[in-house]
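User: Um, any thoughts?
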Amino acid sequence: MKLEKIGLVLEGGGMRGTFTSGVLDYMMDNGIEVSYGIGVSAGACNGVSYVSHQRGRAKFSNIDLLDKYKYIGINHLIRTGSIINMDMLYNRFTEEILPFDYDSYFARGMRFEMVTTNCLTGEACYMEEYNDRHRLIDIVKASASLPYVCPICYVDERPMLDGGIVDSIPLERAISQGFEKNIVVLTRNKGYRKKEKIIKHPSFIYHQYPRLRQALAMRNVLYNKQLEMIERMENEGRIIVIRPEKPIVVDRMERNVQKLTDLYNEGYACAENIFSRSL
């Protein structure tokens, strides 16, 4: 089932993105395809496997690979400056353990944008790649490089971090690309809000990137505004929202495999419920 005029918007959320893995596997199992998608952070990581049509690959990354290789932890942060084992996720996994199907991704004919944050400007960059394997992985890595606990990445020689800093749920971007109707996959339950306050940082944190500091300070405020817009548009019937039905018990850096498996299953079940009623 090809949904030509419907876009797909994928929120991030670290390991909460396992919910999205379940949603996308349901879509692949049932042949539900779109012509445009946009993902942030974990949403970008999940989304590329949807575009390459590798069913179960994102789940394997989030659960099986984590269980075997323990690629998240303070020990990685102390040793390498990143709380995530970047070499495991973006080199060994992508090229050796469960290789990413670049040929399928590039030939799919689906536009997929990934959101990064430009550290110099403090603004969102919407990036896509359909020819260069290395640049594609660089974009995915940058989109998912969490502030404070992951190193700054470079794409086209520009310093980048997690796209969720400035555009956690890029629905407005999808609309600007001509997709008035969208499927929005969230990783928080309905009614969730962050504590709305301006975040102050010590002067030594990202001191060379003042605009990034400004973006980080306003992150919670912007995120809550996006949630308010999404709930309003959902009530107006303008978008389809798939989200967890109960408060999330999975942390951004969750390592409990059972919790992650339960969240994946919830994502699959929620997608089945929504699509059976909406399509």
